[in-house]
């Protein structure tokens, strides 16, 4: 099934409930459709269908109801600023971009909810071409709905729906007061407008030890196949800042994973993925605690929590 038809199917099944009142504060959320095996809602629930356009949903937190608004004009209200700690550290607001199953997103969210990350995921940017992968990969759609996290579809798909434009995307992230943008296996090139709006504030993770096996076309299982075919003895994830090209931003952190002689791409992928989850959480902890510093030559470093004068 093509990307356009999958997106059309997803959008045509989105359901929201009618709104009862406009006098209360709203949070922003997108209610995903039930999976095909899920029974449809009973008529008594009074659900209505609509076709998705560049919009997000406003949900009344008291009545669990919502209405669709244009994303370019939505004002995000009812989302209080993060409280300052006694040490003056402000809780950060995070936006996560996802293309695939959403496993890194889920590990970051779990760490945030458990308190190890001093920040909150306030919005999820889902690649318009990868909706079904996300829904199936980690039960993503239902999981995000349960957590009440807003979803924005990006990029725009020509002739299918009027998706969010780069300019509207930046405006929406500004509305959420996002501090950092985290790419979790997001495969599309990030628009220049977003990079200019968030300098030194966008991170990406790659399943190889960059600069080896990086660049356009190197993603997912293709990376692990290339590593094994090269005879490399080591691989592992790299977290780097994002610039206007694929995988060329400054490297922030890496984790080495051995490549066994009899590894299949799937074996190596599973081993690297485990380290991805750990490394990304550690790095997000560091950025939320303002422990990133920049060397004079432009290389970013992570200060140790135990001793700020040492680097990890």
TrEMBL record:
<feature type="transmembrane region" description="Helical">
    <location>
        <begin position="117"/>
        <end position="137"/>
    </location>
</feature>
<comment type="pathway">
    <text>Purine metabolism; IMP biosynthesis via de novo pathway; N(2)-formyl-N(1)-(5-phospho-D-ribosyl)glycinamide from N(1)-(5-phospho-D-ribosyl)glycinamide (10-formyl THF route): step 1/1.</text>
</comment>
<keyword id="KW-0472">Membrane</keyword>
<dbReference type="InterPro" id="IPR004607">
    <property type="entry name" value="GART"/>
</dbReference>
<dbReference type="Pfam" id="PF00551">
    <property type="entry name" value="Formyl_trans_N"/>
</dbReference>
<keyword id="KW-0808">Transferase</keyword>
<dbReference type="InterPro" id="IPR036477">
    <property type="entry name" value="Formyl_transf_N_sf"/>
</dbReference>
<dbReference type="GO" id="GO:0004644">
    <property type="term" value="F:phosphoribosylglycinamide formyltransferase activity"/>
</dbReference>
<comment type="similarity">
    <text>Belongs to the GART family.</text>
</comment>
<dbReference type="GO" id="GO:0009507">
    <property type="term" value="C:chloroplast"/>
</dbReference>
<keyword id="KW-0812">Transmembrane</keyword>
<keyword id="KW-0658">Purine biosynthesis</keyword>
<dbReference type="InterPro" id="IPR002376">
    <property type="entry name" value="Formyl_transf_N"/>
</dbReference>
<keyword id="KW-1133">Transmembrane helix</keyword>
<feature type="domain" description="Formyl transferase N-terminal">
    <location>
        <begin position="92"/>
        <end position="284"/>
    </location>
</feature>
<dbReference type="InterPro" id="IPR001555">
    <property type="entry name" value="GART_AS"/>
</dbReference>
<dbReference type="GO" id="GO:0006189">
    <property type="term" value="P:'de novo' IMP biosynthetic process"/>
</dbReference>
<protein>
    <recommendedName>
        <fullName>phosphoribosylglycinamide formyltransferase 1</fullName>
        <ecNumber>2.1.2.2</ecNumber>
    </recommendedName>
</protein>
